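User: I'm putting together a teaching handout on how sequence relates to shape, and I'd like one worked example. Could you take Glycosyl transferase family 2 from Flavobacterium gawalongense, show the sequence you're using, and then write out its predicted structure as tokens right after it?

Assistant: Happy to. First the sequence, then the structure tokens directly below it.
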Amino acid sequence: MKKIQVGFLMSYDYKKLKNSIPPVYEEADAIFIAVDKDFRTWSGQTYKIDDSFFEWLKLYDTKNKITIYSDDFYISNLSAIENDNRERHMLSLKMGIGNWLIQIDSDEYFIDFKKFVTDLRKYDSFLNNPEKNQIQIGAFLINMYKYTDNGLLYVDKVTRGLMATNYPDYKVARNTRQRIIYTSNVLWHETLARTEEEIEFKLKNWGHNDEVDVDSFIKKWRSVNKNNFKSMRGFFYIQPKKWNELDYVMGNTIEEITKNFDAKKLLPSSFYIFKKNFGQWFKHLFK
């Protein structure tokens, strides 16, 4: 027990696992990939996975760490977000309570997973009786908006990412609504840096699909580029001002972009993280 167990959800954007698995492979004790047995999204749409991906996975897994977990993850009378919660819970049970249960979406790429694991290990005592000492471990996501003009437009402020827990009682996606301990770690989140067709499919099939005006959002996404992004505001797909401004970095691959980017400039200060963690401790002290 007390292992570093990493889980991924495989769906229509399965090819992005080629970017998200390598950064965590060496430090993970085991990796579990959940996929619906009939290749259905949480909204019931079907998709295909090319056989070449499984061939890549087999060749990449030189240390036999990866397990494919196939199950029935779509229930027709549940909403998309309810199916989301359910699959994440089932995946975590497969990974084993008593371990660190890390769930990474296929479009999330850790910049320094080794540091995250080091930070996580400081809280191993919470694994002794996880049901009575439920916590979540947070990091910060750099949201990638659009590839354009030999570079990337990204949101200029990080957002919270709840990456690990000791007890998977998920309420909304990865959020268990228990105490959060924030760490100074960042991930790229390739949320909208996709083709127009991929974005439309994602927004119509993810857990919050009923909250998005897809046509209106895509119209704005299509119009923004390296030359006009500074004059535009409000880029989030649900509440636009939540992502109010963008910035730009050169690079045509994740590796090039990361090399050209200083993640520290977006990380919250150590004092900010301390305040957040103290607030979380106090908030849950008497619960």
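A couple of points you could highlight for students: The mean pLDDT is 94. The first strand starts at residue 4 and ends at 10.
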